[in-house]
Structure formats: structure tokens, C-alpha cells
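Incident log, support desk, overnight shift.

02:14 A customer reports that sequence design results differ from what the structure should imply. Their input is reproduced verbatim below. On-call engineer (initials T.W.) acknowledged and began investigating.
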């Protein structure tokens, strides 16, 4: 028997008309491809985050950050703390982020390309007209969450870490750090969590369940309790957008806008005093941002229903 000259991928859980792959045969065959079990889908969905968070980033930290820590030890004679804050303040921490993110993009783009034809049958494509609404919700949502956390800190009289990257870059190349955290890392994370993890889950779970699971995984890898909270909420939004658009490029833009909006705040004179203040000064940012989120979400939902 001759080797097949072509292969036809079909959706799981659907009746598909599959052409024969052998040239000496003719005609078509109707076949049912059963969906994989939920356990298998969940297990496969964990593979990209594990590869990215532990294997790829772990290798990057070993290559770039461990030599920095060894140099500190040789210079001072005191073994540095190997905690997260010490690693993030290492001069070559941005290089580790860049290496890990680029390696993730290459690997995940390849994996996504191989699995692109397995997208759920109800995945839609949409026009670029929804992009402004997506960006509005992303940026305003970031500001609303940041201001809301500041209000909570003032009320509780405590200082909560709001980001997994708080205090990063004191001894690092700031431009490289910003380029990596605002552009390169968001692209790698979207390939990982939406293009792969979300699609693996969608083969065995309804959309709502798949979205909750991928957002929870996305939140957990961000470390601190507050970061887990905002990453979970943002992950739900990104999964919802990806489900309705089917275009990974739109969620790229959303994630880049979310991360970059923090950079914009840092360049405003007196911003630290503003966020440390209490009362109406904080609400000047919180309430308009919350209103903008509501407006953007409403317009975006309306646009999706019209598709």
C-alpha cells in the first residue's frame, strides 16, 4: 500500500466528510471523530504553562541570573537571597525575560500552527472595528483596578504588592526591561494561554468552563495575591475576546496595551503622591476608569452579537 499523499484534519466531536488519503482510492467517507475526555483536555492545557513558567523561564534564569548572584557572592562574600526580589533586581534579569519570552514565542507559534485547524467550529472572525473597544476596556480596566487597590490600601492602612514585577529593574537596562515586559512577554503569554491552553480546553469543555480554567491558570503564574486577582480577571476578558474573534492578534494588542498603560502612569509627574493620597483624588481616576470599562464592554458585547 502506498503512503498517503495528504492528511485531512477534522474537528473533534463533529461529523466530518473526510477525503481518502490514498490516490488509488476514490470518493469520500463520513466519519465521527469523538471528542477527547475532559481529563485529557485539562492535562494538555497544562503543558504550555508548565513549559513556559518552569522549563523555559527556569532555564533563562539559570543562564542569566545565577551568574549575577554568583558575582555578588564573590564580591561581597555574602550569599545573596535567592528569593524572587533578589533575582528580579539582578542586572541581567531583563535578558532572562527576553530569552524566555522569545523561546516561548518560537515554540508556541509552532505548536499553535500545528493545532490551528482544531479551532472550535463556533469560533468567529470579526472586523477590526472592535479593536478600539478592546483597547478601551484593557487600559481603563488596568487603571480602575490600580486605583481600586490603592483605595483598599488606604482604607486598610496596609501596603499590598500589586504586581509580580514590583521593584524590578533597579540595576537593569530599563529600556530592555520595558520592551520585554510591555511587548515581548505579552505576545508569549497570549500564545501560551489563549492560542494553546484555551484551545486545548475548548475541545472538551464548554466555553464558560474553559475560560474560567485558563484564566485561573493565567492568574496563578503571576505569583502575588493581588497579581493573581487582576490576571484572573484580565484572563477572563482575553479569553472572551479570543472566543468571539478567533484572532490572536487582537488579544496581542489588548495585552500589550494593558502592560504599557502602567508605563504611561510612571511618566506622569507626582503620580506617586497621587496614588498615596486618600479620598476624592483617587476617585478622580477610579470612577471614570470604571465607567469607561462599562461603556467599552457594552459596546464590545454589542459588536460581538452583531457578527
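02:41 Re-run completed on a clean worker. Output:
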Amino acid at each position: 500500500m502506498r503512503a498517503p499523499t495528504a492528511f485531512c484534519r477534522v474537528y473533534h466531536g463533529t461529523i466530518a466528510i473526510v477525503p481518502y488519503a490514498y490516490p488509488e482510492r476514490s470518493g469520500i467517507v463520513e466519519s465521527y471523530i469523538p471528542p477527547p475526555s475532559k481529563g485529557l483536555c485539562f492535562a494538555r492545557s497544562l503543558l504550555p504553562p508548565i513549559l513556559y513558567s518552569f522549563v523555559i523561564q527556569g532555564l533563562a534564569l539559570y543562564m542569566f541570573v545565577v551568574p549575577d548572584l554568583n558575582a555578588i557572592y564573590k564580591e561581597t562574600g555574602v550569599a545573596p537571597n535567592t528569593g524572587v526580589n533578589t533575582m528580579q533586581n539582578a542586572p541581567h534579569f531583563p535578558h532572562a525575560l527576553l530569552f524566555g519570552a522569545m523561546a516561548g514565542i518560537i515554540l508556541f507559534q509552532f505548536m499553535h500552527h500545528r493545532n490551528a485547524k482544531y479551532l472550535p467550529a463556533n469560533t468567529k472572525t470579526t472586523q477590526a472595528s472592535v479593536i478600539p473597544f478592546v483597547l478601551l476596556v484593557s487600559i481603563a480596566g488596568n487603571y480602575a483596578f490600580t486605583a481600586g487597590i490603592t483605595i483598599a490600601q488606604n482604607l486598610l492602612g496596609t501596603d499590598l504588592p500589586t504586581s509580580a514585577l514590583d521593584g524590578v529593574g533597579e540595576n537593569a537596562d530599563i529600556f530592555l526591561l520595558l520592551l520585554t515586559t510591555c511587548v515581548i512577554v505579552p505576545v508569549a503569554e497570549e500564545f501560551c494561554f489563549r492560542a494553546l491552553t484555551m484551545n486545548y480546553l475548548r475541545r472538551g469543555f464548554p466555553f464558560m468552563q474553559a475560560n474560567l480554567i485558563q484564566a485561573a491558570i493565567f492568574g496563578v503564574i503571576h505569583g502575588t495575591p493581588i497579581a493573581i486577582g487582576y490576571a484572573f480577571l484580565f484572563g477572563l476578558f482575553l479569553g472572551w475576546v479570543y472566543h468571539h474573534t478567533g484572532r490572536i492578534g487582537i488579544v496581542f494588542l489588548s495585552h500589550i496595551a494593558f502592560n504599557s498603560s502602567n508605563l504611561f502612569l510612571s511618566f506622569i509627574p507626582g503620580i506617586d503622591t497621587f496614588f498615596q493620597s486618600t479620598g476624592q483624588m483617587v476617585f478622580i481616576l477610579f470612577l471614570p476608569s470604571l465607567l469607561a470599562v462599562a461603556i467599552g464592554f457594552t459596546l464590545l458585547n454589542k459588536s460581538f452579537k452583531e457578527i
